[in-house]
């Protein structure tokens, strides 16, 4: 007689790589992650003699993709322009967005501002907090002037009670701060554990899809900067955003990592103040030091973060060592890449840097990871070594190779357009740039030595610029 149904059996699965083992182990044998293996129930089908007898009729028939209205789901602006830029225009009804960042970076302040502007547009928002009481949130709302009658607050860490609040308030936007503090009795483990975070996120995602409410989840990060919890957490949600910022600076940046409804490489800039958070629609001025007269050791470049071109300033200081060993210190620039550029300058341009201290830094807390900043780093070092300023109206864009050659970078048209918009008139670039916007002149250079010679020719102080290169 044929048997039907399923028979449960226990197995153990790694939450990071989904590797299955027959027994529990402390460390996954596949990916080597500690504490990620947990028990799961696997249903083993026991089939009968008739094939396909376990098929279940679908609740709704499949339809052609062309029959689905393209405007059925669209973006609704949050009112915070820089966040809408990263989201692709706003939040989508029924979507789940995960915003992760370091403690104290301003996640709660930003999302309270989002809820306030959402309510000002005539829509209802619900702020669920498992970390603060309603009174604490009220105090921050008064400080940041984010009080509105259509913003509802609830201090709740139980998942089922939170879902009941959503059903009772019936908002169009829900903020959960944070997903690691929520817990449910239907899953094992402690709040914030792998099992609890996955169960809570799955339930909140299901609630968002069935009710059509836009949901924003706050996520914690580990000391390495990764989102805390299982890796599957990022797969469950629709949008993943990282909120970044240095405690010593007011600059904050929201960076898109995953976006099912738009581009995933956008970045938004903010300034965090005591009385709230402010959008910065034109952040190029934040990364450039304003001074009345040019000084040596500085060079301007145009980097691209996501799709946004940003003006950045590199500062260098070359001096005699106070001790026996020369020092190399960098801030905001990759140390290994700075060491490579220093070696190229010594070998290909004849600069004597092996016995000198070299200090490199960026302005405004900017991090230059784009290879297009290589040429600006090289010119800043050469300018400080010769104690001669780079022309203030010039920008330098290009990647430096080990042979001293200059290589083209992507998005050159956008970079030059941004430089021309901010008043720069000369751009030292690698050869082969086809499109040059009006108002700026592109001067090509094949290698780093040629770039230094170009700057010598266009410098305002042409009489004393021979010190740019050791071979001149």
Task: Give a verbal description of the structure.
This protein is an alpha/beta fold and 472 residues long. Strands 6-5-7-8-4-9-10-11-12 form a 9-stranded mixed sheet, with helices on both faces. It has a 4-stranded mixed sheet with strand order 13-14-16-15. Residues 1-7, 46-50 and 461-467 have low confidence and may be disordered. It has helices spanning 81-87, 107-120, 134-143, 159-169, 194-211, 232-236, 335-348, 374-386, 412-421, 448-458; strands at residues 6-14, 20-21, 37-45, 96-101, 125-129, 151-155, 173-177, 214-219, 239-245, 251-259, 267-273, 276-279, 298-305, 308-319, 328-331, 357-362, 394-396, 399-400, 406-407, 426-429, 441-444. It has 3 domains: 6-45; 76-281, P-loop containing nucleotide triphosphate hydrolases (Rossmann fold, 3-Layer(aba) Sandwich); 286-468, Ribosomal Protein S5, domain 2 (2-Layer Sandwich). It has 10 helices and 21 strands. Pfam families: AAA_25, ChlI, Zn_ribbon_LapB.
